[in-house]
Amino acid sequence: MFEEAKVLISEEVLQARVRELGLQIAKDYADKDLVLLGVLKGCFLFMADLCRHIELPLACDFVGLSSYGDRTSSSGVVRITSDLTRPIEGKDVVVVEDIVDTGLTMKYLMENLGQRKPRSVKICSLLEKPSRSVVPTHIDYLGFTVEDVFVIGYGLDYDGRYRNMRYIGVLDAP
Ligand code: 5GP
Fold first, then answer.
1. For 117-158, what is the HEC assignment?
2. 54-108 pLDDT tens trace
3. What number of other Cβ atoms are within 10 A of residue 37's Cβ?
4. Closest C-alpha residue for ligand 1 atom 15
């Protein structure tokens, strides 16, 4: 279906890891007041699959972030395009992100969330590109580490497209 995108992480491998992450979070948050906070838009498939493996009465909320930069790199100047719908004061928040690249987006978000007085905040990221790190990011729940390649699929886009691919892939000739 997507001949132009070669498979980096197959649907089967993705789903197995997402399940493991969900079960681990369920264990760690059994007695907590968990809010899953998805970072739009890239989180949407990951969050949908992840939350169904966490059999707890959790809440889901979303934040839209946009970083000024070109299509394939972040500038570090981030703004909130869509804010949380409920206060997180006293809650145990797990931020659900598609990929931590330079780490600048997460740094901004963690600082912003800290001001809202949550009880705890942890990060769950499907992917991480350590070779591109500008600021160190502690990822509490990590799916996979990837090389310095631009990945698409399973929520991640290239120019707004390919988010619906069931696997993580790399474009042959972007
Ligand atoms: P950071 O601030 O960590 O550099 O960038 C994080 C955001 O940049 C991610 O949430 C994602 O939207 C975008 N991004 C970084 N690397 C990639 C990539 O390889 N593919 C896609 N589609 N987006 C990426």
1. CCCEEEEEEEEECHHHCCCCCCCCEEEEECCCCCEEECCECE
2. 999 999 999 999 876 655 556 668 989 999 999 999 999 999 999 999 999 999 9
3. 25
4. 101
Q: Is the CB of 152 under 6 A from ligand 1?
A: yes
Residue 153 lies in a domain: no
Tell me, yes or no, whether 48 lies in a domain: yes
Residue tagged active-site, from 101, 140, 157, 172: 101
Say what the pLDDT of residue 132 is: 87
Question: What pTM was computed for the model?
Answer: 0.94
For ligand 1, atom 16, the nearest C-alpha belongs to 101
Domain of 83: which CATH number? 3.40.50.2020
Domain that holds residue 112: 11-148
In angstroms, the Cα distances linking 56 to 36, 88, 107, 124 are 11, 17, 28, 17
Domain count, the chain: 1
Q: Rounded to the nearest whole angstrom, what is the distance from the C-alpha of residue 67 to the centroid of ligand 1?
A: 10
Question: Does ligand 1 come within 6 angstroms of the Cβ of 128?
Answer: no
The β-bridge partners of 61 are: 37
Nearest CA to ligand 1 atom 2: 105
Q: What is the pLDDT of residues 114-163, one digit of tens each?
A: 999 999 999 999 999 999 899 999 999 999 999 999 999 999 999 999 99
Residue 169 domain-assigned? no
With a 6 Å cutoff on the Cβ, whether 125 touches ligand 1 is: no
